[in-house]
Write a structure and sequence with these properties.
The complex is a heterodimer. By secondary structure, chain A is mostly helical. Helices cover 77% and strands 0% of the residues of chain A. Chain A contains 13 helices and no strands. In chain A, helix 7 packs across helix 10 and helix 8 runs antiparallel to helix 10. Chain A is globular and about 85 Å long. Helix content of chain B is 28%, strand content 19%. Chain B contains 16 helices and 24 strands. In chain B, the strands form eight sheets. A seven-stranded mixed β-sheet of chain B has the order 10-11-12-3-13-22-14, with helices on both faces. Classes of the chains: A mainly alpha, B alpha+beta. Chains A and B meet through helix 2, helix 3, helix 10 and helix 11 of A and strand 12, helix 6 and helix 12 of B.
């Protein structure tokens, strides 16, 4: 199994490198550069020339890329074109904020959606199941920003004023020092991912509940609780793990929209801004981070799947 | 240049504005002591002699003011001479000051740090005299050396700042200190409009040892902290020269890249005031008893820019036809929710030289079709490049495209992001849009309508027009200058490359516990962003 992990890790690194090439090319392909984007409306030719010079934008494309990748290999993510700060310094607090948001969302969303899926499966085709199915379908179909705006209207501005509408943090302080700013963004993410996981969980649980060994377990008189949690769920959970991992990985990117809606000071908002500024080092670093999360999540999901599947577990030895 | 503003005309505010207009006449003096201006008048029309009066009631001293500002991000700056976006401009107005500036009602060029800016024999040489006793936040008095340093810093050929586009015609080699409080400035050509070009927020005076990392100015607030893309904190400058101001102990300016988040923060009580309320939300905010709205008419304009040197717009008949396509009233309703006033393809509406006698242009599709036919451009198809660089701009493009169908013109709207819009094709798009704040006529001409203008987006280079502008710049007699500039505006009105459908309103929204907000014809929210005028009600 360790061989498998090493192989997957190596493939992951290759993936990250390819992504860095694609993102670099994509940012270059965008019209305009950091100098024109930063100067915006005030971009007179004199000022653009002066700033291009200052930001070394006149260097060749290859040398710009090599410079960046060389920096990454030696542990430096470069200097932001917009702020002239090291990217690591610029993003440090924001990475913490985003990870905290995704962490809070996932520790609620995963158990919640698994429980919900099982619950729906046990009430299959009853009215509550239909209601729950419809609600999760609707939530799955709604874009996250619509969910976010709905939550703001309901809990922050128009109906109740329980939570802050906008996640303002004093500079230098982190989200966990002000948990109230995390509530609505996390709730938005939870509502966005729960439908997928719970519907898969419902489906696979139903399948397992129809299997012969569950019938056997029931026939031998085991209490229903034991049948479900000891026998059915461990087998039904495999597809849910895969979906949950994909959803968590999605959060690393989907958080962009949610952070934008709430002005949450995370890397998502920084990415939106950096693309607008054509701030290559920041765009590269944030996309690399998001891609790394994808790779790691998928790896974890595969390992978890192997662990809960005896056939694979033994085969992998 | 730049900046922003917004829409609307709000009946709720009319009474206040009328009162203010009445109050401001005559009340605006140029001396330091007489700055009743922005403080406004109360309902009986009296201009407050005591600074603690506002239209909303008496103001107290103290408190922390949290302001939600439009936009902001990693490229935010606190450098006095590099303001680009809304949040930068707000910071600049409050930390720094220029020698003079147009008052929020745009009626006068108010002297700030300068006591006077006067021409010597001709408007080619000017003497700037500083007020006595004004100090920077660090206690150092403002001197002639600081003025010279600031001008040189703005014009630095290796690193020109924003203001280089407005006062680039200063002859740097001939800046001369006459004494500690007096500077002689020689221009490369005579220009009666020099004080207005100089009196812009981006031409602030900073001390000779200015360091943007620890910024020092003369503004009503002094620097405490600044985090790009998040917020800045300023505290009251105790030795500010204007008696009694500012009212609040500190201000926190918070960035809001997203308009809905800004409004939500106000509704949820996370900020006390916001600038640029989207016009579409005016009614809902107004209905909230805890909030107030002030919608001011401004001289801010958002033109469509047609390049007069490129097909199809190199034929004046096409330009004329396009100007006749616009149903201006409908555009104001659809784009600005009614929060704007009609324009006539001319800018600088508040300048006394404004050619207000030229007939108001109205939609005339038949005439437009006939002009296009004469030009051989029936069934014309053009691309209009738009970007969300300012509220209402992409929407105006859509409305124009709809209206153009009536004249048989197919306008393909191409919406790009701001980075693309200001990229390599900036100022070269054949047909695009832009936005400008209020300016006096000659300053605006220098920005965008002369061959050497930095932002000549229509590529307008008529020799006769240039000739008229040069005559006007050298002319000290106001009446004669007005006559010359009337001819210049007539040329623009008949042949120019701008389509200017409206002047958009600016809408400030703020908690009912605040007072001191004034109308902002200047095109900047909160009346020149002057938070020094804002305070908590007693």
């Amino acid at each position: 199994m360790s061989k498998l992990i090493w192989r997957r890790l190596a493939l992951g690194l290759l993936t990250l490198w390819l992504i860095s090439l694609v993102v670099f090319a994509a940012v270059l392909a965008l019209p305009g550069d950091a100098a024109t984007a930063i100067l915006g409306k005030e971009a007179t030719p004199d000022r653009v020339a002066a700033l291009r010079d200052q930001l070394h934008l006149e260097d060749s494309v290859v040398s710009q890329y090599l410079q960046w990748i060389g920096g990454v290999l030696s542990g430096s993510f470069g200097t932001s074109a917009a702020t002239q700060q090291p990217v690591s310094e610029l993003l440090a607090d924001r990475v913490g904020n985003t990870l905290f948001l995704v962490f809070v969302a996932s520790i609620v969303a995963i158990p919640l959606s698994i429980a919900l899926g099982v619950w729906m499966a046990m009430r299959r085709d009853r009215p509550v199941d239909h209601v729950a199915s419809t609600v999760t379908l609707v939530l799955a179909a709604l874009p996250e920003f619509v969910i976010g705006i709905g939550l703001v209207l309901l809990f922050a501005t128009s109906v109740f004023q329980w939570f802050p509408a906008v996640s303002l943090l004093p500079p230098g302080e982190q989200a966990w020092e002000h948990p109230e700013v995390v509530v609505l963004p996390a709730a938005t993410l939870i509502l966005a991912v729960t439908p997928y996981i719970s519907r898969i969980m419902r489906g696979s649980t139903i399948e397992v509940l129809e299997s012969e060994y569950v019938t056997m377990a029931r026939l031998k008189g085991l209490p229903e609780r034991t049948v479900i949690w000891r026998h059915a769920v461990p087998n039904a959970i495999v597809p849910a793990i895969q979906v949950a991992a994909l959803q968590l990985a999605w959060m690393a990117g989907g958080v962009v929209v949610v952070e934008y809606v709430f002005s949450y000071p995370g890397i998502g908002a920084a990415l939106v801004d950096a693309v607008a500024n054509r701030d290559m080092p920041v765009v590269q670093t944030v996309t690399m981070l998001a891609a790394a999360v994808y790779v790691v999540m998928n790896l974890i999901a595969d390992i978890a799947t192997i662990m809960v599947t005896p056939k694979l577990r033994t085969a992998a030895r | 240049m730049s900046n922003d503003d917004k829409h609307g005309w709000d009946e709720y505010a009319i009474t206040r504005r009328q009162v203010l207009q009445g109050a401001v006449i005559g009340g605006m003096t140029l001396s330091a002591g007489g700055l009743l201006s922005a403080c406004g008048g109360d309902d009986d029309g009296g201009e407050g002699g005591t600074p603690a009066q506002s239209a909303e009631g008496n103001l107290t001293t103290g408190g922390v003011l949290r302001v939600g500002a439009t936009g902001g991000g990693a490229k935010d700056t606190i450098d006095a001479h590099r303001p680009t976006v809304d949040t930068d401009i707000m910071r600049c107005w409050n930390l720094y000051e220029s020698l003079a500036v147009r008052t929020p009602d745009f009626s006068e060029l108010q002297m700030l740090l300068a006591e006077s800016i006067e021409p010597e024999k001709t408007p080619k040489t000017w003497t700037i005299r500083l007020k006595q006793g004004i100090t920077f936040h660090n206690g150092k008095p403002v001197t002639a050396d600081d003025v010279i340093f600031s001008i040189q810093r703005i014009l630095d050929p290796k690193d020109p700042k924003v203001g280089a586009a407005s006062i680039g015609y200063i002859d740097q080699n001939q800046l001369k200190k006459l004494d500690d409080r007096t500077v002689r400035v020689t221009l490369k050509f005579a220009n009666a409009g020099f004080p207005d070009d100089l009196g812009q927020y981006f031409n602030a005076i900073v001390p000779t040892d200015y360091d943007p990392e620890n910024p020092v100015g003369t503004g009503p607030f002094q620097y405490k902290s600044f985090t790009a893309g998040q917020q800045s904190e300023f505290t009251k400058f105790a030795d500010y020269w204007e008696e009694g101001k500012p009212y609040v102990d500190s201000v926190t300016i918070i960035d809001f890249p997203e308009a809905d988040a800004r409004v939500n923060a106000l509704l949820g009580g996370q900020v006390d005031a916001i600038d640029n309320l989207p016009a579409a939300q005016l009614q809902s905010v107004k209905a909230n008893p805890n909030l107030r709205v002030l919608s001011s008419e401004t001289g801010a304009w958002q033109p469509f820019t047609m390049r007069v040197d490129q097909a199809p717009f190199d034929d004046v008949r096409v330009r004329q036809a396009f100007r006749l396509i616009v149903d201006r009233e409908q555009m104001i309703q659809q784009v600005l929710s009614g929060q704007g006033s009609i324009a006539n393809d001319l800018y600088a509406r508040y300048d006394p030289v404004y050619a207000s006698d030229l007939p108001q242009r109205k939609q005339d599709l038949e005439q437009a079709k006939s002009l296009l036919k004469q030009a051989g451009q029936e069934g014309l198809s053009v691309e209009l490049v738009t970007a969300p660089v300012f509220q209402g701009i992409p929407e105006a493009a859509q409305v124009f495209a709809e209206q153009a169908k009536g004249a048989g013109v197919n306008v393909k709207v191409r919406k790009v992001d701001s980075g693309t819009f200001y990229g390599d094709n900036y100022l070269s798009w054949t047909f695009a849009q832009d936005f400008w704040a209020s300016r006096v006529y000659l300053s605006q001409v220098a920005q965008g309508d002369l061959p050497e203008s930095p932002f000549n987006e229509t590529h307008w280079k008529e020799p006769r027009f240039l000739d008229l502008i040069q005559q006007a710049r050298a002319e000290i007699d106001d009446a004669k200058r007005k006559e010359i500039l009337h001819e210049a505006q007539t040329m623009q009105y008949e042949e120019g490359g701008y389509i200017i459908p409206y002047f958009s309103n600016i809408i400030d929204a703020y908690g009912a516990k605040l007072g001191g907000f004034v109308e902002a014809k200047c095109g900047f929210p909160f009346g020149n962003y002057w938070l020094k005028n804002v305070g908590f009600l007693a």
